[in-house]
Amino acid sequence: MKTAILMSIFAFALGLTACGWNPDVTAVPISEPWASMGLPVKENAVVWGSTDKQFKAVHKEDRKAVTTKYVEALKAKGWAMDSIDETSATNTFIDMSKGAEKLKLDIYIFNNTGVIIDKK
Fold first, then answer.
1. Rounded CA gap, 105 and 117, in Å?
2. In whole numbers, what is the pLDDT of the chain averaged over residues?
3. Which of 114, 95, 113 is nearest to 105 (CA)?
4. What is the reported pTM?
5. Torsion angle defined by CA atoms of residues 17, 23, 24 and 26, in that order, rounded to the nearest 10 degrees
6. Residue 72, H or E segment
7. Residue 11's pLDDT is what?
8. Burial label, 45 (beta-carbon count in 10 A; 0-12, 13-18, 19+)
């Protein structure tokens, strides 16, 4: 009986690890200017591109939740949303500005949800 219980617990634990989220990207360190923008990448996210002009991440959450988190994080750092286009079934496009600086966000379906931000 004890053996059966232990086997059940082991199988359950193995099943949980097999269901883990493991995106097909290689993590890189987040660099400036992105590191100081307070982007929501501390949990359930992998940063896989970070240069001075472009940022790339993949998130475990759905596109709507990720879109909300990025807009809120950037607004908290003084960025204003100029436009949002949610007409695509696969992508959400957002333009944001802060003074003369401009950001273009593409939030899309990729290993759950991908994010690309281009700094103009």
1. 4
2. 88
3. 95
4. 0.83
5. -100
6. helix 63-76
7. 36
8. buried
- Distance CA(110)–CA(88), nearest Å, equals 14
Which domains, and CATH codes, for the chain? 23-119 (3.30.310)
DSSP H or E segment with residue 50:
strand 45-50
pLDDT digits (tens, 9 = 90+) for 29-45: 999 999 999 999 999 99
pLDDT digits (tens, 9 = 90+) for 64-120: 999 999 999 999 999 999 999 999 999 999 999 999 999 999 999 999 999 999 999
Residue 9: both structure tokens together:
């617990």
Nearest partner of 30 among 17, 14, 7, 46, judged by Cα: 46
Say whether pLDDT at 51 is over 80.
yes
User: What tokens appear for 102 in the block?
Assistant: 């401009």
Contact 51, 31 (CB under 8 A): yes
Question: What is d(CA 117, CA 79) in angstroms, rounded to the nearest whole number?
Answer: 13
